[in-house]
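Reminder to self: tokens first, then the designed residues, so the page reads top to bottom the way the pipeline ran.
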């Protein structure tokens, strides 16, 4: 804590020194200051209480530095920063920190209000106070002593806080107007500076956009729900102020759509869907899959897969509970055991299980592709452990275990088998087991030839396999490199071999000859039984028979 406070002392001083404008007017990088402070003091991990404590300590330092005391230890005397007192940009920073402290306390209460609803009243009071401090900052910035950029940032900051208050009060129209004002100012500021300086403003605009679309939807714009769903999916179900509201809104919208959904078709059989949770999940399945396809990076894609799997598990659990409680279903299953027909609820459970299995396989396949790309990249940091072929062996083994050879999973089974064999060979190469690796490379080439020859029998599912073509080229290169590896043992000896110029050169002897190696010696102590040890009688203490005379001799110290 002491080290953290020392860092806090250094950072504000640097900021305050660079905030004065060249022409002598007062300036304050409002957005830059609050973003840096939030990221360095808790908000990177959502710890609003820590950030609130930082704001309090910084306020205390600023008041002490400026001599802006609020009474003494016995009596509190309220004191406000006025335009007449405005002689230093730290007066503006003082008001900004008061607003940030109230805002962080409100966000802390918002987290706690999930389990304690009464704290919502306190939350609204803190937000109103933060907005009040923001308005005070805006009025101070109207002074001719403050530069134009600071005035605009103060207006945008105040509009944001007012929008937050109206948003929590569910005054959607007022909140939307405030957020739009904030967005417009930041967009104008971004257009007035270079790209590097405009990055922070663009980030702020992206943070505000979900709030605006949410307000628009509640006002009556039905098209806004598509944008909100895309924002939520692209974020991978991450946290944030809007996360819970977006989840509730999307669930509510899907519930309305689920009212008209009554059945689903799978493998030529139509099954009625009567469970609401299953309807909502099946309606959102296409949106989730579309978001996964459009994901920008592997990290986002992995978060989307985890979110989809969590929803799928919850839906399967709901169907399983319905199966347990449905007594009539059990009776029908017992009566129809001879016919062999699966009930609708059991068939729906099988369909959801298939979706879960298929999603897990695709998730693992995506992770395998990411690991393959990292494996091909050169390692710059030797101390950092990079991916190894063993990691891919384990991953492809899991993929094959989760795949039944159904028509939808044939392609993944084939590719998984090929890559599993390939990376096992790679692992043998790392430990210099050349013969085992060479045999496995030959097996990979054999499997790829079989895949190419039998591709037509799989209903065109294996015709377009660029991964197989790349694998053939890579295995061929690895094979030639492996065959040349043992030649390093005789680089100093030239040997003219005519077979090396033939179509089938014999570079190495395979299998290699056995070589004698020294065995670990065993030692047995056989001489011990034949050794005659010398007598030790003279060394052993003899107990004399001196009686009481000997006792007195030893007692007085003579005769020993």
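Designed residues (560 positions):
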């Amino acid at each position: 804590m002491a080290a953290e406070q020392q860092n806090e002392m250094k950072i504000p001083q640097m900021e305050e020194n660079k905030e004065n404008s060249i022409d002598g007017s007062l300036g304050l990088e409002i957005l830059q200051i609050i973003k840096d402070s939030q990221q360095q003091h808790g908000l990177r991990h959502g710890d609003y209480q820590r950030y609130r404590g930082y704001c309090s300590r910084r306020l205390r330092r600023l008041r002490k530095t400026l001599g802006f005391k609020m009474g003494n230890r016995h009596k509190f005397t309220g004191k406000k920063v006025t335009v007449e007192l405005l002689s230093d940009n730290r007066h503006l920073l003082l008001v900004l920190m008061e607003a940030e402290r109230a805002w962080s306390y409100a966000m802390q209460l918002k987290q706690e209000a999930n389990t304690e609803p009464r704290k919502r009243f306190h939350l609204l009071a803190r937000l109103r106070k933060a907005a009040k401090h923001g308005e005070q900052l805006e009025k101070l910035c109207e002074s001719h002593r403050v530069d134009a950029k600071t005035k605009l940032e103060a207006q945008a900051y105040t509009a944001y806080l007012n929008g937050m208050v109206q948003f929590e009060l569910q005054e959607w129209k007022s909140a939307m107007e405030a957020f739009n004002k904030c967005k417009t100012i930041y967009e104008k500021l971004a257009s007035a500076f270079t790209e590097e300086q405009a990055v922070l403003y663009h980030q702020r605009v992206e943070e505000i956009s979900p709030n605006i679309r949410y307000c628009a939807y509640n006002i009556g714009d039905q098209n806004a729900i598509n944008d909100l769903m895309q924002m939520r999916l692209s974020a991978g179900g991450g946290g944030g102020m809007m996360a819970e509201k977006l989840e509730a809104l999307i669930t509510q919208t899907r519930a309305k759509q689920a009212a008209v959904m009554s059945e689903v078709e799978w493998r030529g059989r139509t099954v009625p869907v009567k469970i609401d949770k299953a309807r909502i999940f099946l309606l959102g399945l296409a949106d989730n899959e579309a978001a996964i396809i459009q994901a920008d990076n592997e990290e986002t894609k992995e978060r989307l897969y985890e979110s989809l799997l969590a929803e799928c598990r919850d839906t399967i659990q709901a169907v399983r509970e319905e199966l347990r409680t449905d007594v009539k279903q059990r009776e029908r299953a017992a009566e129809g055991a001879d016919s062999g027909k699966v009930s609708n609820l059991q068939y729906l459970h099988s369909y959801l299980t298939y979706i879960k299995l298929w999603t897990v396989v695709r998730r693992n396949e995506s992770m395998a592709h990411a690991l393959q790309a990292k494996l091909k990249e050169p390692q710059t940091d030797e101390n950092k452990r990079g991916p190894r072929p063993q990691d891919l062996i384990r991953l492809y083994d899991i993929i094959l275990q989760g795949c039944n050879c159904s028509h939808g999973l044939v392609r993944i089974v084939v590719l998984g088998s090929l890559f599993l064999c390939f990376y096992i060979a790679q692992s043998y190469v790392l430990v210099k087991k050349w013969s085992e690796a060479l045999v496995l490379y030959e097996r990979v080439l054999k499997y790829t030839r079989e895949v190419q020859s039998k591709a037509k029998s799989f209903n065109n599912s294996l015709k377009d396999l660029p991964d197989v073509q790349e694998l053939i080229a890579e295995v061929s290169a690895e094979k030639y490199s492996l065959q040349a590896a043992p030649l390093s043992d005789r680089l100093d000896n030239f040997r003219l071999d005519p077979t090396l110029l033939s179509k089938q050169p014999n570079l190495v002897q395979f299998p290699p000859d056995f070589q004698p190696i020294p065995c670990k010696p065993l030692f047995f102590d056989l001489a011990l039984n034949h050794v005659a040890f010398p007598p030790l009688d003279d060394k052993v203490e003899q107990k004399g028979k001196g009686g009481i005379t000997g006792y007195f001799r030893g007692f007085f110290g003579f005769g020993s």
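The first helix runs from residue 2 to 18.
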